[in-house]
Amino acid sequence: MKNRVSQKFAEIYGQGATLFASPGRINLIGEHTDYNGGFVFPGAVDKGIVAAIRLNGTDKVRAFALDLNESAEFGLAEEDKPAQSWACYIFGVCREIQKRGGVIGGFDTVFAGDVPLGAGMSSSAALESTFAFALNHLYNLGIEKFELARIGQSTEHNYCGVKCGIMDQFASVHGKAGHLMRLDCRSMEFTYFPFDPTKHGYRLMLVNSCVKHELVGSPYNDRRASCERVAAVLGQEFLRGATMEQLEAIKDKISEEDYLRARYVIGEEQRVLDVCEALERDDYETVGKRMYETHWGMSRDYEVSCEELDFLATVAEECGVTGSRIMGGGFGGCTINLVKEELYDNFVKTVTERFAAKYGHEPKVYPVVISDGSRLL
Ligand code: GLA
């Protein structure tokens, strides 16, 4: 990817570009908890975005998306928002930096990525983090890492229509090889957790249903609104910290749908904590159990699954896979699976065959390699 991006840059704009990269992410557990002030447990992966960038001394950005073979040119004022949705991510990052007082000018860029789109692995956060990190570096802005993640999140909110939490951008910027990160999305404190399931005879892998996942302007924002309504009835800023008893006590004041959604989130808070505790004891069986609970909670109560993802989790369970669940926002994309080494080959074979027989196309399987966050190459 590095070579392809550099070569294309040289071809279109000439020499002198600097290369930057940011990864996509996985999340072991803690889904739809970030915007509820709860815990998440992500890690960065070995797939991401690479961009070649060179300041051009004008007030225009000229960008080329190598994978799409498309170019865009835009200014840096609010009214210059480009038409292409991919360019809006770059534009949004520039605007959010400017809103924070960062003085930036135009640049030329070519970028490419290998995070599968719509797989729930945060290709958009990888794109935002790449440009936030790069512009901070090239203009010497001195913006703290966490703020770079917020710049990406605000880009989603203000320029892409997704009221996402902080998890994806946080993980992309802060990732560390061999480590997951437990982030408290209320205090924003986080700790790195060494994570190497292979030492204990397990593998972590993703199975991509290839059902396209689309969060923009979508049911994602509705889920968030449900949680905020319930929190308001409870008199809290976030659902975080609410108990099932408190939820039961207000059941007749909220809709059935909001009740089920809040029930999922409150359960998920506890599951993240259980998983962290289980990992301290190398108790992967408990980790796996909680993963299945998350899956069915996301499917039945939070209603962000789909038939194909439920099928993947069911086949995993039938193959004796330790844990399996939808990963990311949902509505398509991947399951994340914790599989015992000796069951791995059989699971891959079985899930591939059975999925293909039912849906007419094979799912894609990716091993998870926990890698570093945003960086200068
Ligand atoms: C998407 C959002 C994140 C988070 C997850 C669900 O990836 O961008 O902020 O809410 O969904 O956990």
Q: How far is the N terminus from the C terminus?
A: 12 Å
The portion of residues assigned to helices is 40-55%
Q: What is the fold named in CATH at topology level of the largest domain?
A: Ribosomal Protein S5, domain 2
- The CATH architecture of the largest domain can be given as 2-Layer Sandwich
- Tell me the total number of β-strands: 13
Placed side by side, the strands forming the largest sheet appear as: 5-4-6-3-1-13
What can be said about the biggest beta sheet?
Answer: 6 strands, mixed
Spans of at least 5 consecutive residues whose pLDDT stays below 50 are none
Whole-angstrom Rg: 21 Å
Structure keywords:
377 residues, Alpha-Beta Plaits, binds alpha-D-galactopyranose, alpha+beta, 4-stranded antiparallel sheet, Ribosomal Protein S5, domain 2, 6-stranded mixed sheet, 11 helices
Please characterize this protein's 3D structure.
This protein has helices at 2-13, 85-99, 123-138, 145-160, 167-174, 219-234, 244-249, 256-280, 284-301, 307-318, 344-359; strands at residues 18-27, 39-40, 42-55, 60-65, 70-75, 107-113, 179-184, 190-194, 202-208, 323-326, 334-340, 364-367, 375-376. It has 377 residues and is α+β, with helices and mostly antiparallel strands. The protein has two domains: 2-195, Ribosomal Protein S5, domain 2 (2-Layer Sandwich); 197-368, 2-Layer Sandwich (Alpha-Beta Plaits). β4 and β5 form a beta hairpin. α4 (145-160) runs antiparallel to α5 (167-174), α6 (219-234) crosses α8 and α8 packs antiparallel against α9 (284-301). Bound molecules: alpha-D-galactopyranose. Residues 31-32, 34-35, 122, 164-165, 167-168, 328-329 line the site of alpha-D-galactopyranose.
